[in-house]
Amino acid sequence: MADVARSSPPSTARSAVPSTVSSAALVAVGGTLGVTVRALLEGAFPAAPGGWPWTTTAINVTGSLLLGLLLTALARRGPDAGRRRAVRLGVGTGVIGGYTTYSTFVLEVERLVTGGAVVTGVAYALVSVVLGVAAAVLGVVLAGGRAGARGQAAHDPDALVEERARPGDGPRAGEVRP
């Protein structure tokens, strides 16, 4: 009887805190790696004063491509849980989030514009955004996303996962099948 009284509460009551801490740790470790790679690249290939920031452009475009590939591949394999969630957090939010850089991009646009290279600054801003979106879409396509699933996913994040369910698959969490 004494052993029953000393038993710990069900793990579900305590699972939220460790899950949050471990998720934050995945993002932090991945982010450290991504930021380190970006800093090494930016240091090795700095932009010339008043010139196009090619390194940041390449970093943000390749990061967009990789994120499109990763998120689509993960979504096609099932719900955002377990290992898929850990990979999304560690690699997607952490590594790729640390690798890409909106703050450096904005700072470079500001420096170009205030330094007198207004046309270059505006062109850099526009080209970077367009190429980033195009690279993300390419990543989705390369990972096997379809145009119909992408369009529906814009309104329903679970649409890509549900559309990829095979007839022999059982229903996924929250999914109702006829």
From TrEMBL:
Entry membrane topology? Multi-pass membrane protein
Signal peptide positions are none
Locations of Basic and acidic residues compositional bias?
153-178
Q: Which domain of life is it from?
A: Bacteria
InterPro entries, per this entry? FluC
HAMAP family named in the record: FluC
What job does the chain carry out? Fluoride-specific ion channel. Important for reducing fluoride concentration in the cell, thus reducing its toxicity.
The region called Disordered is annotated at: 150-178
Q: Which reaction does it catalyse?
A: fluoride(in) = fluoride(out)
Q: What is its main location?
A: membrane
Give the similarity note. Belongs to the fluoride channel Fluc/FEX (TC 1.A.43) family.
Q: Which gene encodes it?
A: fluC
Q: Which organism is it from?
A: Cellulomonas iranensis
Cell membrane is among the record's keywords = yes
Protein name per its UniProtKB record = Fluoride-specific ion channel FluC
Instruction: Spell out where the chain crosses the membrane.
Output: 21-41, 53-74, 86-102, 122-143
User: Protein biosynthesis among the record's keywords?
Assistant: no
Q: Where in the cell is it found?
A: Cell membrane
Q: Which positions are annotated as binding Na(+)?
A: G97, T100
Keyword list (alphabetical) reads: Cell membrane, Ion channel, Ion transport, Membrane, Metal-binding, Sodium, Transmembrane, Transmembrane helix, Transport
Activity regulation field:
Na(+) is not transported, but it plays an essential structural role and its presence is essential for fluoride channel function.
Pfam family membership, one: CRCB
